[in-house]
Amino acid sequence: MDARKTVTDAGYIAIGLGVMGVQRAQERGRTVKEQVWGAGDCLANRGRDFETRAKETVTKVHGLGTDLTSRVEPLVEQVQSKVEQVQTKVSQVPEKVVQAMEPVTARVRERLGTAAA
User: Fold this and answer.
1) Hey, where are the domains in the chain?
2) 94 CB neighbour count, 10 Å cutoff
3) Could you give the CA distance from residue 39 to residue 44 in angstroms, rounded to a whole number?
4) Mean pLDDT throughout 64-92?
5) Neighbour-count burial of 99, counting CB atoms closer than 10 A to its CB (0-12 exposed, 13-18 middle, 19+ buried)
6) 47: closest CA among 19, 87, 9, 10?
7) Distance of alpha carbon 99 from alpha carbon 93, whole angstroms
């Protein structure tokens, strides 16, 4: 009878540790997602600042009446394109983190006997 209680208690402890592990993984996933979104916001802000400065420069160049405008505008378009590409890639990172965590979560659930959840 004592051995049965010990085995039952050990099972409860193992399940509890598994649940805590899943919760910790989810917490870390949320933290990573927040950090990535924060980095994305920072990049977006810097991109907007750069775009604003580039537009100001274009305006100054127009005011000087030089042909530099025709050289600067394609660069501004390239920068805008690159900023959009970076924003797109940064926005995909949280999804990739979740996708990377799914097999681990499934395995933990499988081990805990909650694979259908």
Assistant:
1) 2-112
2) 18
3) 9
4) 78
5) exposed
6) 87
7) 10
The yes-or-no verdict on residue 86 having pLDDT over 60 is yes
Q: Give the count of alpha carbons within 13 A of 116, CB side only.
A: 0
Instruction: Give DSSP secondary structure letters for 20-75.
Output: HHHHHHHHHHHHHHHHHHHHHHHHHHHHHHHHHHHHHHHHHHHHHT-TTHHHHHHH
Instruction: State which amino acid sits at residue 79.
Output: V
pTM recorded for the entire structure: 0.36
Report the SS3 class of residue 80: helix
Structure token pair of residue 99:
């996708």
Model pLDDT, residue 117: 47
83: which 2 tokens? Answer: 């900023």
Q: Is residue 54 within 8 Å of 76, Cβ to Cβ? A: yes
